[in-house]
Design a protein that fits this description.
This protein is of the alpha/beta class. The N and C termini lie close together (12 Å). The chain is 26% helix and 22% strand. The strands form 6 sheets. It has a 3-stranded mixed β-sheet. Strands 3-4-5 form a 3-stranded mixed β-sheet, with helices on one face. A 3-stranded mixed β-sheet has the order 6-7-8, with helices on both faces. It is globular.
Length: 344
């Protein structure tokens, strides 16, 4: 598998979905449900959209683990990337969450599945920092470059620099924190709405980093290994163009295919030259999720990637051609993936 692009993901199928009132104050992307639409209709629409994302990923050869959520007190549980991340070498992180009504999204059954089906060596749980008012909301707060070992982080009360440094020390990343604001001076609530880092391409709204020196440092760090940077505008960020994620799927013939998963709204906001730059290394997979996007997050927020080695002999949910082997299983465009994985 690619160090950056996981071939398996976790999705939460939330029976009850509404934009979370507890997060509305600092999430400028969040919107109200259309007037006159019932909570039941909103939830049904969100479930259908989640199912469409899961099916699109399965059709692209990604292994999808879906967990049902029947708890009506967890309006944001469809966004598991805020409470869990997984890492090569068998490490898992569990994160402290800002909104108190999101903290019981953390699920032991998800962790048990990972331990039973994948090789998990260590679980590092930072959630005990919540009573101290210290938060780091997973791969919402951080956009991780698993190849170069960099944690890009827009500083906010959902991304505390002290716990960021602690995470980076525990998981061997370089912290790269910066301020990011919109044109009205409002801080960006999560880094993953303005940036996405793939193996060979990154999408980022550098214009939202007001410090010019820091902006150029971020640009340089992203491109140091030859990665192409696609610069997004603030308006494209508002259309969730930054809230994308690179995944590794399989063709029906069993060959690897690198995907950039995003919403249809995000895809429509991209200019032709931006699409061309992304498609030099990834196939864009887009799904329309207008109801889920009312909560202020998009496809990236819905996906917790599994960067773990699976246990041999364990029967996993079937995915088309997932067991097939590339002609050369260690290379992607001439790069030695085995070496990349060894450093992750």
């Amino acid at each position: 598998m690619s160090a950056q692009a996981p071939s398996a993901v976790i999705l939460i199928r939330a029976e009850r979905f509404i934009p979370n009132p507890a997060t509305a104050a600092d999430n400028a992307f969040q919107r109200d449900v259309p007037t006159g639409q019932s909570e039941e209709a909103t939830s049904a629409n969100a479930v259908a959209e989640m199912d469409a994302v899961a099916q699109a990923l399965r059709d692209a050869g990604v292994r999808v683990h879906v967990f049902d959520d029947e708890d009506h007190t967890r309006p944001d549980s469809v966004f598991p990337n805020n409470w869990i991340s997984t890492h090569a070498g068998g490490m898992v992180a569990v994160y402290p969450m800002y909104a108190s009504n999101r903290r019981h999204e953390r699920r032991s059954d998800v962790l048990e599945m990972l331990k039973s089906q994948y090789r998990v060596q260590t679980i590092v749980d930072y959630s005990g920092l919540e009573p101290d008012g210290i938060f780091l909301e997973g791969t919402g707060a951080m956009v991780l470059d698993h190849v170069s070992r960099v944690a890009y982080t827009a500083v906010s009360h959902r991304a505390d620099t002290h716990v960021l440094e602690r995470f980076c020390a525990d998981f061997n990343y370089e912290p790269m924190a910066f301020e990011a604001v919109d044109s009205a001076g409002v801080p960006v609530y999560h880094t993953n709405v303005l940036a996405c880092v793939g193996t060979d391409v990154a999408l980022i709204a550098l214009e939202m980093i007001p410090d010019e020196v820091r902006r150029e440092q971020v640009r340089e760090r992203l491109t140091v290994n030859g990665r192409t940077v696609v610069e997004l505008t603030e308006q494209q960020v508002r259309e969730f163009a930054g809230n994308a994620v690179e995944l590794c799927g399989r063709t029906p013939e069993g060959r690897r295919r690198y995907l950039m998963a995003m919403s249809a709204r995000a895809r429509r906001s991209l200019r032709p030259e931006q699409v061309a730059a992304i498609e030099e290394s990834c196939e864009i997979i887009s799904v329309d999720i207008p109801t889920i996007e009312l909560a202020g997050g998009s496809v990236r927020c819905m996906i917790a990637g599994v960067h773990l080695d699976r246990r041999r002999g364990v029967e996993l949910e079937p995915t088309p051609a997932v067991e097939a082997i590339d002609e050369d299983p260690h290379t992607r465009d001439g790069q030695d993936l085995a070496m990349a994985e060894a450093t992750d």
